[in-house]
Specification:
It is a single chain. The chain contains six helices and seven strands. By secondary structure, it is an alpha+beta fold. The longest helix is centred in the first third of the chain and has 15 residues. It is globular, with a radius of gyration of 17 Å.
Length: 160
C-alpha cells in the first residue's frame, strides 16, 4: 500500500492565519516508529541485556498485532510502551500505557504519569487487551502534528 492510499482523509486547518494540511490517518511516521521499535525488539539478546528485554519484546509484538494500537504513534521509555494519538512531541497522554515487571509480568497505568496503576497482567496479550478496552472514544489514526495541534483540530468538532 502506498503512503497516499494509507491516508484516510485530509483537511485544511487554519493555524495562526496560515493554511496547513493535516492528514488524519496512518502515516509514514507512525509506521516508521513501529518499525524502529519492532527492530529493536527483534534484535538478538545480548548476555548483558536487561532481564526485561524478553518480556518487553513480547509486549511490542503483541501490541503491534492489534490494529487499534498499530494506528497510534508508539514510543518507549523505561521498559514502557506508550501510545499517542499524535505523531510529534509533545505526545498525547490520554491512552493507557504498559510497562514490564521484573518477573515477566506487565502493569497497565495511565493515561497520565500521575494516574494510579490500573492492573497487572500475566501476559502481554492480556495487558494489550486491557489498554484496548480503555481506549478513548475519539481514538483513531494518529494525527500528524503535536498534542496542541490535535487539540486545536478537535476543539471545534467537539463543541468546545
Amino acid at each position: 500500500m502506498s503512503a497516499h492510499q494509507a491516508i484516510i482523509c485530509q483537511e485544511a486547518v487554519l493555524d495562526d492565519g496560515r493554511e496547513r494540511l493535516h492528514n488524519h490517518g496512518m502515516t509514514n511516521g507512525v509506521e516508521a516508529a513501529w518499525r524502529k521499535i519492532l527492530t529493536a525488539a527483534g534484535e538478538p539478546r545480548r548476555p548483558e541485556a536487561s532481564p526485561l528485554f524478553a518480556p518487553f519484546s513480547e509486549l511490542v509484538l503483541a501490541a503491534h498485532s492489534e490494529p487499534l494500537l498499530r494506528q497510534l504513534h508508539p514510543w518507549t521509555g523505561m521498559w514502557e510502551l506508550h501510545f499517542s494519538r499524535c505523531t510529534e512531541i509533545r505526545y498525547t497522554w490520554d491512552v493507557h500505557y504498559i510497562g514490564t515487571l521484573g518477573d515477566g509480568r506487565y502493569y497497565i497505568e495511565g493515561p497520565s504519569r500521575t494516574s494510579p496503576r490500573i492492573a497487572e497482567a500475566d501476559s502481554a496479550q492480556a495487558a494489550v487487551a486491557m489498554v484496548i478496552d480503555r481506549l478513548p472514544s475519539r481514538c483513531g489514526p494518529a494525527f500528524i502534528g503535536t498534542a496542541e495541534e490535535l487539540d486545536a483540530y478537535e476543539r471545534p468538532r467537539n463543541g468546545r
